[in-house]
Amino acid sequence: MRADAERSRRRILEAACEVFLERGPDAPLDAVVRRAGVGPGTLYRRFPDREALVRALVTDLLTRLAEAADRAREAEADPYRALRRFVHAAADLRMGAAIVVLLERLVVDEELVAARTGAVAAVEELLRAAQEAGQLRTDIGMGDLVLLCVRVSRPLPGGLAVLDAGGALVHRHLDLALAGLRPGAAVEESAEESGGKAGAEAGAEAGGPLTFDQVIAAAGRPGEPGPAE
Amino acid sequence: MRADAERSRRRILEAACEVFLERGPDAPLDAVVRRAGVGPGTLYRRFPDREALVRALVTDLLTRLAEAADRAREAEADPYRALRRFVHAAADLRMGAAIVVLLERLVVDEELVAARTGAVAAVEELLRAAQEAGQLRTDIGMGDLVLLCVRVSRPLPGGLAVLDAGGALVHRHLDLALAGLRPGAAVEESAEESGGKAGAEAGAEAGGPLTFDQVIAAAGRPGEPGPAE
DNA sequence: CTTAAGCGGAGAGATTTTCTCCGCCTGTCA
DNA sequence: TGACAGGCGGAGAAAATCTCTCCGCTTAAG
Predict the structure, then answer these.
(1) Residue B190 near residue A175, CB atoms below 8 Å
(2) What is the phi/psi pair of residue B115, to 5°?
(3) How confident is the model at residue A1 (pLDDT cuts 50, 70, 90)?
(4) Which nucleotide is nearest to B50 (CA to C1')?
(5) Which of A32, A115, A214, A228 could form a disulfide with A62 if both were Cys (CB 3.0 to 4.6 A apart)?
(6) In Å, how far is B2's CA from the nearest CA of chain A?
(7) A84 reaches B (C-beta below 8 A)
(8) What is the model's pLDDT at position A189?
(9) Residue A147: phi, psi to the nearest 5?
(10) In chain A, which residues have their Cβ closer than 8 Å to the Cβ of B149?
(11) Residue–nucleotide distance: B28 CA to C13 C1' (Å)
């Protein structure tokens, strides 16, 4: 593959990552093209359709995610610090967030499951180690960790995104969130007094840690719930 | 106003709130119509254009937000519990998140500023009280509180939204985030070791508490930054 | 029972999005 | 250095989506 072709490919993938993150997986490919600063032809030659682009992106991200986890574990002897380093790295790379946005649009074939399993295993290892060392609350599951990452590291809506310039704010808020996961942190009774409005019945079991399987199950079906997306 | 007209109006506002929250302030009004289960005619008769709808929505939300803050302060003697109650109420009503999404699309006239000031004052009061009582870290600003609320209570992207069914998960994660704001919570050195990739220069001053004014300033300008949204 | 306000939906027109084709440019290898 | 295969950007046709109006039927209110 020619050098400039490879460069284009990477620019497209990076642009796609950000665009999908900001505008959802249905964002016009045109927007990707514009952000990448290439012509439409270039995108469609490399990725025949939306599915191909998304698949390439997800595979790439899952791989890097697993690598980041391994690197974090090697770089920090302290289990909590390793976990923290990983979480920050994932946020930097816009990964955690991007993946869940995208997974739902794909038929998850074997290759994808393999990549996902690898990444999850690496992160789970970090989580478990921190919990066993008594440095993290034990009522937190992989699902909680992943979702918290997604929530905190997603770009803010609309004009607020500028606050995140450079990523400094994301890191600040990630640390705030992580602080809530330390064993010392106060735990509130869920109380269930939620107020009159929103349904008080627990759809997902609110009590225990959220497992990763629950997250996968939810991501599995496209637009099933709700009154016609 | 006839009873059914009022009912339609409310259904439209509720639908609009969710749709704008999920798909941004440019979401097709068609989608609002579909979710509300009314005909297009009904929407356009009540709200001549997008601006009218957005304005009605924001005004309504700001008012309710201020009310919720007052109610929380009266219901709980303990300052931290009052703040917590308010935060959960705001999440239930999809408010904090909706407002910031929408404010940027509006010319903020006097009426809007008044409503906003009222709401902010009420919440600021809650925050200050909790901090003075020593129940909350003092390196947290209104901006942090608001943004954390936005981040945690926004609907999850895509299919993951089903995990939030009933709102149980949002409340769980809100409590996790709040736990990170307690005085006891561990504070990390920001370290700035972010990793090679993302720019390490601090766009927003990463150090101190984020003020509400900073948030407003950011929300003020539409799509100024970035390489052509 | 009367009546006017309200409602849902069909659909015209405008806008946006997808994707192809083609002529020029640029790495790469001899 | 020169030749050329592969790559590039962009114009633009075809399809999809979105906005908003008009109209005949329904329904709340007196």
Answers:
(1) yes
(2) -60, -40
(3) confident
(4) D19
(5) A115
(6) 24
(7) yes
(8) 60
(9) -65, -40
(10) none
(11) 17
d(CA A47, CA B165): 36
Written as six digits, the tokens of A34 are: 């514009």
Of B147, B159, B182, the CB nearest to A222: B159
**Measured in whole angstroms, how far is the alpha carbon of residue B165 from the centre of its chain?**
19
Q: Which residue is nearest to nucleotide C9 (CA to C1')?
A: B39
Q: CA A176, CA B148: separation in Å to the nearest integer? A: 9
Angle between helices B79-92 and B95-103 (to 10 degrees): 70
Residues 199-218 of B with CB under 8 A from A: 199-206, 210, 214-215, 218
Domains defined along chain B, listed by start:
1-48 (1.10.10), 51-219 (1.10.357)
pLDDT-wise least confident of A105-114, A182-191, B141-150: A182-191
C-beta atoms surrounding A178 within 10 Å: 25
Better-scored residue on pLDDT, A42 or B101: A42
φ, ψ of residue A94 to 5 degrees: the values are 55, 30
Q: What average pLDDT does range B135-145 have in this prediction?
A: 96
Quote the mean pLDDT of chain A: 87
Strand C bases near protein CB (under 7 Å) are 5-11, 16-22, 26-28
Q: Answer for the pair A63, A115: CB distance below 8 angstroms, yes or no.
A: yes
